[in-house]
Amino acid sequence: MRFGDIHGSAVSIGGSHNTNTVHQGGTGAAAPGAAELLDAVLALREALVREAPRGADRTALDAELDGVAEQLEGSETIRPGLVGRLRAALERWAPLIETVSAAAALGSLLGALGG
Q1: What domain of life (predicted)?
Q2: Whole-prediction pTM
Q3: Domain assignment of residue 8, yes or no
Q4: Which of 4, 22, 69, 96 has the fewest other C-beta atoms within 10 Å?
Q5: Is residue 78 a part of any domain in this protein?
Q6: Domain membership of residue 40 as a residue range
Q7: Number of structural domains, the chain?
Q8: In a domain, 100, yes or no
């Protein structure tokens, strides 16, 4: 799974006959901020608890998401490198999150942020 630059497009993540699609807003939309990215990270974290099997991969992804959430909490800006770190984590654990709709929403935000 790769997340690239997304403008006025849709992101679809799916496998095993499951597809989740999130549409990114049209032109001129402001880039998401730290609070919006934090909300998406927390939503994915919660969805993983409900939907993904426990195991070493999920534990590692949980830890990565918790670390990102800590950096975003109370912050008004997104630290340099954080978007790339989060994108790499989602790509690494794509098989684990491919059917989790919250992953598509987070992927859409990452695409809007570039990096």
Answers
A1: Bacteria
A2: 0.70
A3: no
A4: 4
A5: yes
A6: 30-113
A7: 1
A8: yes
